[in-house]
Specification:
9-stranded mixed β-sheet; Metallo-beta-lactamase, Chain A; globular; about 290 residues
Length: about 290
């Protein structure tokens, strides 16, 4: 991705670097290391693509994309909507489940980048059998299974309490068809410097959130707060404060769909007095950790 394109990203706000429990973080407009995934950085660079989508550049310069709902995403950055290639050369492509606002443009990005799409086993299989991706571009794994899709980067699949379904337009009939797509998952993404991100995917409350928090000890949790299909702000706050207790959290899966009415203000109110640091983002914004 060219730097001039990156500088056009909306809603980025410059803040000073701060320190939280030994972890540095900053919000910045177009930091140089994030302009290309080939330039190694000592930081973790994150950009919210809207809904549950994130563009992450690892400390070693690897570009990770999760749940890329871009072309159809109402809040996705305009430059990516115009050209999926503007995301950059994707090294790791992760999808938590098959709903359209998560699977989104992942098949197209897998083909464009000639990179494997990692996801729930029974989601990847129908993607291949329906012809949405070639067999060599799908990698199947399941909960508690882990993969190392790049040197010194480990991704572990964890439980999510949700459903999964592929809606596919049959080219022979021009009609939409619904196909079972296994079970939804979340991911623990451990980067080269040991920094751990828990992308929860879509999920409701479940007691094993406590186990996942204690066992994997994520530094940063990406948590849905929209309600209806997932936890609402109050349930998300309960999970964070009672079970998970991470250092930092980014709320997601709100503000893009009228059927997910939970708001950032409600989440912040529910988290009042918490020791968990909230990083509210606007779509297209960048954060550095």
């Amino acid at each position: 991705m060219k730097i001039r394109q990156f500088l056009k990203l909306p809603c980025a706000v410059a803040l000073s670097v701060a320190t939280l429990s030994g972890s540095s973080f900053a919000v910045a407009q177009a930091p140089a290391p994030a302009a290309t995934a080939t330039a190694a950085s000592a930081k973790v660079e994150m950009q919210w693509l809207g809904q549950a989508g994130f563009r992450i550049v690892s400390p070693g310069g690897k570009l990770i994309v999760v749940d890329p709902w871009i072309k159809g995403g109402p809040k996705a950055p305009a430059n990516y909507k115009a050209d999926l290639g503007a995301l950059g050369k994707i090294d790791i492509l992760l999808v938590t489940h098959a709903h359209g606002d998560h699977l989104g443009d992942a098949p197209a990005l897998a083909i464009l980048n000639k990179t494997k799409l990692f996801g729930p086993a029974d989601m990847v299989t129908p993607l291949i059998t329906l012809g949405m991706i070639p067999a060599d571009l799908g990698h199947r794994f399941n909960k508690s299974g882990s993969v190392k899709p790049a040197p010194s980067i480990k991704v572990t699949a964890v439980k999510a309490e949700h459903s999964s379904l592929i809606v596919w337009n049959n080219p022979l009939t021009s009609k939409n068809e619904s196909h079972p797509a296994g079970e939804a998952m979340g991911y623990i993404i451990e980067l080269e410097n040991g920094f751990k991100i828990w992308h929860m995917g879509d999920t409701g409350l479940f007691g094993d959130m406590k186990f996942i928090g204690q066992h994997y000890k994520p530094d940063l949790v990406l948590i849905p707060i929209g309600g209806n299909f997932t936890m609402d702000p109050e349930d998300a706050a309960f999970a964070l404060n009672t079970w998970i207790k991470p250092k930092m959290v980014i709320p997601m899966h709100y503000n893009s769909n009228p059927l997910t009415p939970g708001t950032l203000a409600e989440f912040q109110a529910a988290m009042k007095g918490s020791s968990v640091k909230i990083f509210p983002m606007t779509e297209g914004q960048m954060l550095s950790f």
